[in-house]
Design goal:
mainly beta, 31 strands, elongated
Length: 439
């Protein structure tokens, strides 16, 4: 912290308000039984009954205020002594680190070090960053009437830190000196805002399903207890968090719904991973065009530190693979589980128009492969199925009558869609497997 020097009656002092830390005693304390006996002595029921009172009486006799040698200072007098926490709190001795998402709270005192009273003091406090100035306090409409010689005026300001990098707390005072002259005092206090955590994301698409993995890493020197890590999906998306199965009882699962324990991410580089499954929301009555959009959503993250100081961050929009919507889409609705050899069967298909205009009419057939092998699944009847025009975002169900000529697992290949107006054929439907059995 630095301030601007000057010959003034008044001067600002800035102190940061933050919670104390726990005092930890470094010496390792021991149980007296560990010094004199081994673990197997407690296998004897008589020794197990008589030894603890004997050792405790010896410890009590040596633990008195007149023992200047502190012979028992490393012995456990209470089971809680083993954790090293003495029950004492330590007040902050330095300004400390300030992190993005925290609330910066400062106690400011303006002191009159002169031998006379100053009057009509107008005080202002503001935060300056590279992008903006934020006013925290302004007493222009109600100035401080006077500050006596040797006296002071105190106030507290708060600011939610939402930017990284250098910040400056600017404190100014306009006051009347002892000789009636108006003086202007500016003082500047600088600090750096660091990033408490990083969020690394990966987007994967598996069989037309989008998965989002987020890795949160703790960059602070204290543990972070994550109260909330929620992914807010963008419009037309839904998100589901995927968790590992836990063998908990029903009672435990009910209690977890009432009280959700926070996730601990340890200090100095601790990490935790989250996995979400994303789905595109579709509504047949009001179709949505999202072609080319690759915005998936953003994270809302809240946490607390060891003594409960809160923090909150919102990430930027997470981007995924750009969506390339097809003009026309051909899908399989139903396929028989078992097909009888040399007997006709029906394949249920659905044709969907993904555009905001009419398309078609269409033709569907089973294309011939380049190889000279005989086709084992063929169309039974008319070789070309004609479909009428489809209205914008409309769809039509139809059936292909097929017949299989060989037993076993067979493939239906080469189902092709052709637009008669555009004079173009779309990519064939992926191969389908069927099981052909005897009648």
């Amino acid at each position: 912290m630095s301030s601007t020097p000057g010959t003034h009656s008044l001067a600002f002092r800035v102190m940061r308000l933050c919670r104390p830390s726990l005092h930890v005693e470094p010496p390792l304390r021991l149980d007296p039984a560990d010094l004199f006996v081994g673990e197997d002595i407690f296998d004897d029921p008589i020794a197990a009954f008589n030894l603890p009172p004997l050792l405790s009486s010896h410890v009590d006799s040596t633990n008195n205020s007149s023992d200047l040698s502190y012979r028992s200072r490393f012995l456990l007098h209470d089971p809680s002594d083993s954790i090293g926490l003495s029950g004492l709190l330590v007040l902050p001795q330095a300004f400390g680190a300030i992190y993005l998402g925290e609330t910066f709270c400062s106690y400011i005192s303006i002191n009159n070090s002169s031998t006379f009273e100053v009057r009509d003091v107008i005080i202002k406090a503001e935060i300056q960053t590279d992008r903006q100035r934020i006013l925290l306090l302004d007493t222009s409409k109600s100035p401080v009437e006077s500050i006596r010689a040797g006296g002071r005026y105190d106030f507290i300001v708060e600011h939610d830190v939402k930017e990284l990098g250098p910040h400056t707390l600017v404190c100014t005072a306009l006051y009347g000196d002892g000789d009636g002259e108006r003086k202007y005092l500016p003082q500047f206090f600088k600090f750096i805002v660091a990033n408490p955590l990083s969020v690394r994301t990966k987007v994967r698409i598996v069989k037309e399903m989008t998965y989002l993995e987020a890795c949160i890493e703790n960059h602070t020197k204290s543990n972070l207890y994550m109260d909330q890590v929620e992914f807010e999906p963008a419009q037309h998306w839904s998100a589901t968090m995927l968790k590992a199965d836990e063998p908990d009882s029903n009672n435990n699962s009910q209690s977890r719904e009432v009280f959700k324990p926070p996730v601990l991410i340890r200090s100095g580089g601790g990490i935790h991973n989250y996995l979400y499954r994303l789905r595109m929301i579709s509504n047949d009555s009001t179709p949505v065009k999202v072609q080319g959009s690759n915005v998936l959503g953003k994270f809302q993250i809240t946490w607390r530190t060891n003594l409960g100081e809160p923090g909150r961050l919102q990430t930027q929009q997470i981007l995924g693979t750009p969506i390339t919507s097809k003009e026309i889409e051909l899908n399989v609705v139903e396929i028989p589980s078992v097909v009888s050899v040399d007997k006709p069967f029906s394949l249920h298909l659905k044709l969907s128009n993904q555009m905001d205009r009419e398309q078609g009419p269409f033709e569907v057939w089973l294309s011939q492969s380049d190889s000279h092998e005989e086709k084992v699944v063929m169309i039974n009847g008319l070789q070309i199925t004609v479909l009428p025009r489809l209205e914008a975002f409309g769809s039509a169900d139809f059936h292909l009558n097929l017949i299989a000529t060989k037993l076993g697992v067979q493939r239906i290949t080469g189902i092709t869609l052709y637009d008669k107006i555009e004079k173009k054929a779309y990519d064939p439907l992926p191969d389908l497997e069927i099981f052909v059995d005897l009648d």
